């Protein structure tokens, strides 16, 4: 690419942000591929548009993730309990093909499973995804051959989801398409993409955020409802949206989003609820009854306690911690000097759920990657966080290798695994702290530093503030003078004094 940065851009993209000009890490990293991005990459007249480049990069990284699973595909899933962990290539997908009755033609939610798990313990839309993949899986050959084929079919379907995520993030910030490279090149994204089926919910959530950024709240709600029918976490975005719409008094738009979410979720879930209640409710029962598990700080407490907390106590405490975090995010949103961007609040609320939950499976990082790229598009911070997540990814498999290798004790002992958990927690907390700092100090926000308000905020972008609490309701006079230009552009703030 040419590095002629002074050449004017095309009229098609008059103000597109070039990360190699504003991000030192991106500029230095670009030397590996020929230097900072040049004018021809932004003209919009070439086939190589940002959307296509980023989608192809995402597919390439996804393919590298498939290669990383090759030792398991070639036998470690089937012939060695610990080798799938020492090679760090474990996946739930082939194991659940037989374990959840797909190999025997059982219908999810309707047919009982042999063993302790009576029904499929996944939300309905994920169950549909798994069932469709089983229809496309060859029933001939050994069970190992069928499980390999089932994994490959799912991998192909999940690759489509990865492409959708890349395209949606690229198009969410119109002026900042290249920020989506933070998603496409995220190492933890590639490593965990085929462990489970989380990419389906992540893709629907990314599409929902794209719709909201385009001012289409009903479409946002429908897609978010579908995402929630595939995984629970997307519903938390409604909480972030609620406080932002409260501050801007955008109740009609929030109502459309809420109505669309409820409608789409019911359309998917209601038939199964009515016809197979026990099967439908298995996911919720399992989530409630499941004990403290991998990746959470609760596991560290339990494994280092002579009198560990009961599952019921952990459920109660985790719920209270999550509610406390939600209250903190709401207070931050309503008292910040400027209304936070939607992506920032969405990231914080999902990160709070991850940090307080009683389990953190390694693929849960997928939930945060697109939100982090939109909330804090800075390579240094994302790479610090990703390094912590890759360390945790290796740590959990080495710990499982230790627990499954018998007296040989190959792998990472519990104390070492606790350090890996701590690294994951610290990495996530670091990114949370940086996003909170950007909210409290908008001049540090990479997006707002370029003169924008909330490019992923849809109807909230440049909207007038109506309800503001605390100190933000009475900005100092000198601050009002300093912000006179933006306030004229975005409307005068009508603050309501109060406190939370």
From TrEMBL:
Pfam (any one): GT87
State if Nucleotide-binding is listed as a keyword: no
Q: How does it sit in the membrane?
A: Multi-pass membrane protein
The membrane spanning regions, by residue number, are 47-67, 149-169, 181-212, 218-245, 257-277, 314-336, 342-361, 382-402, 417-440
- List the InterPro entries: GT87, UCP010361
> Would the keyword Transmembrane be found if you checked this record's keyword annotation?
yes
Its annotated compartments are: Cell membrane
Q: Where is this region: Disordered?
A: 1-25, 474-500
* Keywords linked to the UniProt accession: Cell membrane, Membrane, Transferase, Transmembrane, Transmembrane helix
Q: Where is the composition biased (Basic and acidic residues)?
A: 12-25, 491-500
Which family is it part of?
Answer: Belongs to the glycosyltransferase 87 family.
Return the protein name: Glycosyltransferase 87 family protein
Which species? Streptomyces nigra
């Amino acid at each position: 690419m040419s590095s002629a940065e002074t050449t004017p851009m095309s009229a098609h993209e008059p103000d597109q942000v070039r990360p190699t000009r504003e991000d030192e890490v991106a500029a230095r990293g670009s030397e590996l591929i020929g230097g900072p991005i040049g004018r021809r990459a932004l003209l919009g007249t070439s086939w190589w548009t940002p959307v296509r480049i980023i989608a192809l990069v995402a597919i390439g990284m996804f393919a590298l993730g498939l290669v990383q699973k090759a030792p398991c595909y070639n036998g470690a899933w089937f012939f060695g309990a610990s080798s799938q962990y020492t090679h760090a290539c474990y996946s739930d997908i082939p194991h659940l093909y037989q374990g959840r009755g797909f190999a025997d033609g059982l219908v999810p939610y309707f047919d009982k499973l042999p063993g302790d798990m009576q029904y499929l313990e996944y939300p309905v839309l994920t169950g549909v995804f798994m069932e469709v993949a089983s229809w496309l899986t060859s029933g001939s050959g050994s069970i190992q051959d069928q499980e390999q084929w089932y994994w490959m079919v799912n991998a192909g379907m999940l690759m489509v989801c990865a492409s959708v995520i890349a395209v949606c993030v690229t198009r969410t910030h119109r002026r900042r398409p290249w920020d989506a490279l933070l998603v496409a090149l995220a190492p933890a994204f590639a490593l965990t993409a085929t462990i489970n089926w989380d990419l389906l919910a992540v893709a629907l959530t990314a599409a929902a955020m794209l719709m909201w950024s385009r001012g289409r709240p009903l479409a946002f709600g429908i897609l978010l409802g579908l995402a929630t029918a595939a995984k629970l976490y997307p519903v938390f975005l409604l909480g972030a949206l609620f406080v932002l719409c409260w501050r801007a008094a955008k109740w009609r738009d929030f109502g459309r989003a809420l109505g669309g979410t409820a409608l789409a979720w019911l359309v998917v879930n209601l038939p199964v609820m009515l016809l197979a209640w026990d099967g439908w409710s298995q996911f919720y029962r399992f989530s409630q009854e499941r004990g403290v598990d991998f990746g959470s700080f609760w596991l560290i407490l339990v494994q280092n306690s002579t009198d560990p907390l009961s599952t019921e106590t952990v459920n109660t405490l985790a719920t209270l911690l999550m509610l406390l975090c939600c209250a903190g995010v709401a207070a931050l949103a309503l008292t910040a000097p400027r209304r936070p961007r939607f992506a920032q609040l969405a990231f914080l609320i999902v990160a709070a759920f991850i940090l307080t939950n009683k389990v953190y499976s390694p693929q849960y990082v997928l939930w945060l990657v697109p939100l982090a790229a939109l909330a804090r598009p800075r390579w240094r911070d994302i790479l610090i966080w990703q390094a912590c997540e890759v360390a945790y990814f290796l740590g959990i498999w080495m710990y499982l290798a230790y627990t499954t290798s018998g007296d040989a004790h190959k792998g990472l002992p519990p104390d070492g695994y606790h350090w890996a958990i701590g690294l994951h927690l610290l990495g996530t907390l670091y990114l949370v702290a940086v996003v909170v700092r950007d909210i409290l100090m908008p001049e540090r926000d990479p997006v707002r530093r370029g003169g924008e308000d909330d490019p992923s905020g849809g109807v909230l972008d440049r909207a007038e503030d109506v309800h503001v609490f605390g100190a933000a309701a009475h900005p100092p006079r000198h601050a009002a003078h300093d912000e006179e230009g933006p306030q004229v552009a975005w409307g005068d703030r009508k603050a309501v004094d109060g406190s939370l």
